[in-house]
C-alpha cells in the first residue's frame, strides 16, 4: 500500500493509498504501467536483474472474495513478509503491492488474481530475469594509480571517526543585539517572521454547485536580512565540507580555476563559520579538519587547497564518506551544515553490481547512484538529511549521478559547462548557505468541514494528507533569507446552503525553528474563504498568482516527462513535450516577466533534447539542473557557453547580467536562477565577478607597467 504523498518516480504523479505500486531493487517506487517491460530504472538508470511486466487482464477487476479476517499482527506481518512465500522482504528485492493492499516479491506475484484474497487485478503480473550484456564476464580490476597529491597529509591513515573539529566561537563574539534602526528595518521585512498568505483560483463559486479540485495557492516567504551589518552580526554560523575532485582529468586549467574558487569561498566565510576540505581521486583524504575561519584558519585552509594536485581515478563514494565522517564526528555543531561536491568525471569504482571497484575503461554492472551517498547524509529516524549541493564541472561529468546525490539529500545540482565561471556558481550556493534564517519549517493546512483535500502539488517536498482528507502538510525544511515557496492544493468544495454567502475553506499555519535564536515559532496565515453568490459573474477573472504557479508546476512536470522521453531515446517527443508547454501559456500571462523567462528556458531546453548528440553533450545536464531548481524552487544554474536563450546568470550590482569576462553575452543560467536567486545570492555572485575582473585586469596592468619602465 502506497503511503500518503508518495510519487511515482517515472511519471512523477501521485500514488494513491489504494493504488498498486511496484518497488524496484534500487528503492524507487512506480505505477506498475509506468515500468512495464523496462529493464532499467527510469529514475536512476540502474540496470534491473528482473524485468517487470504488467499486461492488461482479459477479466474485469473484482473485489476480494471471502477475505480472511484481518488482525493487527497479521497486517504487520503482511507488510514485512511476502504474501506467497512468507519470507521477509530485504533491501534490494523488487516487490509488488496490489490494489487489495497485499505485498509480494515480484517473482512471487504472477497472474491476475491475488493469491491471498482472490481479488482480480486489472492486469497480468509477471517478470523475467534480464541479464545485461555488460554483466558477464566482469572486467578485471585495474591497478590503482599513484596518490593524488603530495602534502603532509598523504601518509597519514584515515581514522574511523573525525573528532578533531575546532571548538565554536564563543556566543558573545558571534553577534550583537540589533539597534533601533535595525529593528525598524526588521519590522519592514515582516517583523523577522515568515509570512504566509493564500490565493484562491476564483474569488467566487456558484452557491448551488460543488467545485471539485478547486485550486488554492499557499505562499510562504522567509524573513529578509535587516541590514548588511546586522545580517553579518546575527546570521547563523555554517559548518561546511567541500568535497573536491582531484582526479587526473582535473589537471591544468581546471584545478587552477578550482583553487581560485575555493580561495573566494574561504574569503567569504566569517570567524564563526567552520570549513573542512576533502579531496578525492582514487582514494580520499581530508587535508584540513573542521576549522574556524579566523585569520589563521583562512591561511591554513588556503594553504591546504594550494597543495592539491590532480592524479588518479574518480571515487565519489570515498569523498562523500570522508565528508560524512567529518560531520558525524563533530564534538561541537553549528546549526547549519552542508556539503559541496564538485566532480568533472564519472565514478569508476563504486557503480558495479558486485560492489567491487573497477578501474579505467570498465563498465558498471548497474547505475544505482543512491549507493554513492553514505547513510548518515540521508534522512533517517530522528535526523534530517544533510544537503549535498553538487556541481558538474565540464562536459564529461556524470550528471545523473550528481543530480541523484543532490536529490536524495535535499541539495541542488548545478551544471558548469563554461569552466571559467565555477567561482560564480560556488558564490551563488555560498550566498544561500550563509543566509539560512529558519529550519524545520512545516506548513499545515486544516480544512473547514466539509471541504476535503484531494491532492497537494509540492514538487520535491514531502507532503501528506491525513486519512480523512481533512488536513495536509508540506515539509519545507530549511529556507534562506527572502526565499519563497509556493504550493498548490486541490480541494473539493461542496454546495453551499441557500443562505450561505461565504464558504470557509481552510486555515494555514507554519511551524519552524528560528536559526538565530533556536526558538520554535508558530505563524498563522489569514483564513481562506470563497464567496458563494447565486450566480457567478460572467466577467469573473481568475487569480493571476494561481495561474502563474500552475504554469510553473506544469512546466516542472513536463521537464521531468521530457527527460524520461529522452532517456528512452525519444528525442523528438521530448522536444514536443517542451514545445507544447510553451504554447499552453495563457494570453493573460504573456507579458508576465517570470512566465516569459520560463518560456525562454523551455525553448532552450527543447533544442538541447531534440537529438541524441545534443542531449548527450549538454541536454541531460541542463534538463536535470532545470528540474532540480524548479522542483525545489531554489536557484541552481547551469552556466553554458553559447546558449540561445534561458535565464541569464544573476547580474552583479550595477552590472549587466549574463556577460562573460570578455563582455560577450555567452554565459546563461538555467533552472530559474533569475526567479529563485535571493538578494544574498545575487550580491555574492556580484562580488565573485568583481574579483574575477580584478584578477583579469592585473596581468594587463603589470604588462603596461613593465613596458613603461623599459621605456624610461
TrEMBL record:
InterPro entries reported for this sequence: CLCR, Vwaint_dom, VWF_A, vWFA_dom_sf, Znf_RING, Znf_RING/FYVE/PHD
Claim: Zinc is one of the keywords in the record: yes
Domain VWFA, first and last residues per copy: 239-437
Region named Disordered: 687-712
GO molecular function, one term: zinc ion binding
Domain of life: Eukaryota
Keyword entries, A-Z: Metal-binding, Zinc, Zinc-finger
A Pfam family recorded for this sequence: Vwaint
Name this polypeptide is given: VWFA domain-containing protein
SUPFAM superfamilies documented for this protein: RING/U-box, vWA-like
